[in-house]
């Protein structure tokens, strides 16, 4: 196991620092507006939201989970390690987020928009 970093050694790529910076609603809102090029009035931010529906099935831990005034949901993940199937991972995260959006009997038209954003310090398409 690696040594514990001191606070002054942390960068935005460290899980603790990324979470601390993104918990500030202005920081999170600013990042979302820049990445998605959409205006957002306000966001409510949660750090490390876990979604586990059944112990037999793979759950997810969302690094940063936010909701805006239109009920749009955002998941923001910092990726510093190249792992296989990043696209499928993103798809799975989004499907798990959708699972808690509709109650029995509700129409699919009521499903809010969701975004899963992976910020990578590498080319996720392998072209670098």
UniProtKB/TrEMBL annotation:
Per the UniProt record, the source organism is: Mediterraneibacter gnavus
Q: Which InterPro entries match?
A: RpnA
Q: Which residues form a coiled coil?
A: none
Q: What is this protein called?
A: Rpn family recombination-promoting nuclease/putative transposase
